[in-house]
Specification:
Helix content is 18%, strand content 33%. By secondary structure, the chain is an alpha+beta fold. The longest helix has 8 residues, at 120-127. The radius of gyration is 13 Å and the shape is globular.
Length: 128
């Protein structure tokens, strides 16, 4: 059974979102379920800091020994940071998908509605 932290929000495409304590930044990554399904991750295509993303649109990709998968933005906003460590160590996503394996940070606009995202219980049901 994959880890599903209760404090995170999830997409049906297996990304997670953590609203940071400042209330204006969200950290985004892929779930343990997604990385287990992909297998050993060998490459991560990252957007640039300053890029704009729209909810549901592709913002990058992960490649593994098994497959390649697009990454989809859980919310709209400006990318404020990318996890540059993934360029040389994409396996961080396999090792720690909810920590050191984060992918991007997005500035959260004040009018952002997170109600379309899944809570841990709904994501667990989706992946059951």
């Amino acid at each position: 059974m994959s880890e599903i932290p209760a404090e995170l929000k999830y997409t049906k495409d297996h990304e997670w979102l953590r609203l940071e304590s400042d209330g204006t930044t969200a950290t985004v990554g892929i779930t343990a379920y997604a990385q287990e399904s992909l297998g050993d991750i060998t490459y991560v295509e990252l957007p640039g800091a300053g890029d704009s993303v729209e909810t549901g649109d592709t913002f990058g990709a992960v490649e593994s020994v098994k497959a390649a998968s697009d990454l989809y933005a859980p919310i709209s906003g400006e990318v404020t940071a990318v996890n540059e460590a993934l360029e040389n160590a994409p396996e961080l996503i396999n090792d720690d998908p909810f920590g050191e394996g984060w992918i991007i940070k997005i500035e959260v606009p004040t009018d952002t509605d997170l109600s379309d995202l899944l809570d841990a219980a709904a994501y667990k049901a989706l992946t059951a």
